C-alpha cells in the first residue's frame, strides 16, 4: 500500500508540474488541524513529513502558515501547545488578514487567491476548506493526514490521472494534460480496445480413444480329460 501511495502522488505531482506550472522548491501551507493530526497519528513533525511525502528534501520544500492559524492554535489551549510551537518554525504568508479579522481557513483561501498564482500546496483536515479550495479557478493540490500516512486529493480538473474509470474522463483532457499523464491521443482512442497476443487452445471434446477399441471375446480354457479316459488321437 505504501508503494502504491508513493506512485499515486508522483503521478499527481507530475500532472501539476506539466499542466499547471508547479516547481521545486514547493510552497506548502499547513493549518493547525493538519499539524495536530500529524502529532496525534504519530507521523512526525509536519514540515518534515510533508517534504518526505512530496519526495523532496526539506530544503526543496518551503512550509508556510498564516498569522490567523498561529492565533487559532494559541487560543485552543494546552492540548495544542506542541502544534502551536511548530508554527514558530514555519514561514509566514505575507499580507493577508490580521488575527481576529478572519478565520484560519479564510486566511488560507485568501493566500491562494482566485487562481493560486503562488502555486501553493495546502495541507488540511478541514473538509469545508477543501471544498472552497476546489472552487478556486487555479489548481490547488490538497494533502491530508490519514492513519496510513499522508494522502493527496485527486486533481479536480483531471480525475483521470492514472485512475480513470470512464472513457469520457480521459477524452476531456487537453493535449497538455495528456502529456502530464504520459498519454497521447492514440492511447486515449485505444484505452478500451486493448488486445493481447495470448491465444488459448480450445479444449477438444470427445470420447476417450481407448474406449473406442473393440473388446476381444474371452476364450474358455479346454476341459481336462476325465481320469481313466484315453486321449483320442
UniProtKB/TrEMBL annotation:
Entry's Gene Ontology cellular component terms: small-subunit processome
InterPro entries reported in the protein's UniProt record: Fcf1/UTP23, PIN-like_dom_sf
Gene3D superfamilies according to UniProt: 5'-nuclease (3.40.50.1010)
Principal subcellular localisation of the protein: nucleus
Gene Ontology biological-process annotations: rRNA processing
Region: Disordered, residue numbers: 201-233
Compartments it resides in: Nucleus, Nucleolus
Keywords, ordered alphabetically: Nucleus, Ribosome biogenesis, rRNA processing
Transmembrane parts of this sequence: none
UniProt protein name: PIN domain-containing protein
